[in-house]
Amino acid sequence: MLGALVFAGIMTGCADDEVRDITPTGIIPQEEFDAPESDDISKALAAIEGISDVTIDHAIIGKKKAYFFSVEMPVSHLEETGQTFPLRCALEYEGADAPVIFYTSGYDVGNGADNLAENDMKGFLKANVLHMEHRYFGKSQPQSLNDISYRYLWAEECAFDMHRVVTLLKEKFFKGGNRWVSTGLGKGGVTSALYAYYSDLHGWNDMNLYVPFAAPFPTATPASCEDKTPGTYLVNVCGSGYDEGSDEDKAFKYLRDYPNCIANSKALRDVCLRIFYLKYPDLYLGALKAYPSNVEQAATAVVLSVFYDNLSGKFSYLPFSRWAPLVPDPRTATAPEATAKDIDNVVTFIFSTSEGLDAMLPDNTDEDFLMTTRGYTADEVRRHRQRGERNESYCIQSLRELGSMRFDYSLLTSGTFLTAAAAADINANVSETEALYRDVYPNAWDGGQLMKNVRNWLHTTQKPLLFVYGTSDPWTGAAIPDITDNVNVRRVMVPGVGISNEFMTAFDKNTSLVIQNIISSYIKR
Fold first, then answer.
1. Strand, helix or coil at 341?
2. How far apart are CA 264 and CA 249, in angstroms?
3. Cβ(302)–Cβ(407) under 8 Å?
4. Distance CA 86, CA 261 (A)
5. How far is it, in rounded angstroms, from Cα 359 to Cα 353?
6. H helix and E strand count, the chain
7. Mean pLDDT of all residues belonging to the chain
8. Best exposed site among 17, 230, 277, 313 by fewest CB in 10 Å?
9. What is the pLDDT of residues 363-417, one digit of tens each?
């Protein structure tokens, strides 16, 4: 997804003899980064057989410190290959007897302490945090990137990775009977839940509690790994339920008008198609290749998929109440008197990602500017901003086991330039997951079997699990149901929240207390 960076300038005046410290709160001056290359913790980690490449990293932003290391891991736990690879981990150390949060990212762990995922559980429990990179992401590559087949990219292999890392740290590093909790966000939440699932199958008792946040379990159909339920949830639920006449209520109604405005206004459609070609040339050419005789209709359908993809990100990563006032009425771009500015405002919103929209918010804080005021290098700025991105590994695992999102075009009016059925068919043919890997990995999709197995297993498991979902997160459409026949599995729905694990800071007070009490009952006792 494309993002936008916003840069700003600030002018300050002061007397000639006045020296002002403009270091923003939480940013460590550059001179404080000079730290020893090793200490007792890093030496203890390095002394463990199977652990190598131990380094200490200090965050650029804040006072975070992390120990990065690699664990020697079999290329396959299920086949006898005789080969190993280094699996990357990171430890934020709090104390020998403190609880340990095992944070499963589902992606890579990043290149520095300030790239490690945040979670409110760390402060709530005053806990150590152990991060583990998912195999085939970042530096944790079981196969050479020059000859990669993703042969061992399976959830069960990853579960064995997690069990080995936790067992090693329990036996050789944390030996004080620490309480352990596994958690993750989004795909990381799915990874945490799958760890619990395979722990049950293999008899592992590694964790005291599992807390997956925003973990979808799409089942789709045997014919396709794309599940429509999150897309339908995005259309029908996300942004609904606010008071009549509120900014949120207006924005929800505007959003439901966008599909028909894009499809049926020639002026708006033409601008969208030009921007689409410039921003997403591969998608455009995919539509052209698949539908050479009706490329305008095909490209319009894919524009709608881009609109929904961006809209999904906005709901997922930004509080709806913050950006609702920025949603323009699409009908201003379709009226006969529409100006170029009217059309530009609507098109800008259609193609803006969550990052781009966030930069437009009035209370946006530009971290790039804050860092450059202290003279950080471009490499340090990139290092801070780098995050795990969806890549081929993500697409392959989605294709095989996890499923992906298919959008719902039912808001399109029948009998117009583009019908809902046509839009769905076109996007099924040109979608990234389906099109790129249909021929490369034929018959790889498991028909949603793993996701179905997990859903069935939740009714009988003795593992304690707490699932937390935000009602504004489109992936909540693929949430587990409310399990009422098993006291070990609990589900909490957080009103008005997207993808988030900030239960101490972003959730409403009552929901936050419920989550705190459940975690405390397993970890603080």
1. helix
2. 24
3. no
4. 51
5. 10
6. 19, 11
7. 86
8. 17
9. 654 444 333 333 434 444 343 333 334 478 888 898 889 998 999 999 998 778 9
CA dist 139 and 161 (Å) reads 14
Measured over the CA atoms of residue 72, residue 77, residue 79 and residue 80, the dihedral's sign is positive
Q: Write down the domain spans for the chain.
A: 30-220+447-523, 242-437
Q: Under DSSP, is residue 421 helix (H, G, I), strand (E, B) or coil?
A: helix
- Reduce the secondary structure of 189-203 to three states and give it as a string: HHHHHHHHHHHHHHC
Give CA–CA dist 276/141, Å, rounded.
Answer: 34
Domain topology for 30-220+447-523: Rossmann fold (3.40.50)
Looking at residue 108, the DSSP 8-state letter turns out to be: -
Q: Residue 6 to residues 57, 387, 436, 522: CA-CA distances in angstroms?
A: 28, 18, 33, 44
389: left (phi over 0), alpha (psi -120 to 50) or beta: beta
Angle at 138 between CA 136 and CA 144, to 5 degrees: 50
Tokens coding 221: 């159909």
433 CB contacts (<8 Å, ≥6 apart)? 225, 226, 395, 398, 399, 404
Determine contact, residues 473/317, Cβ cutoff 8 Å. no
Q: List the structure tokens of 411.
A: 């808001």
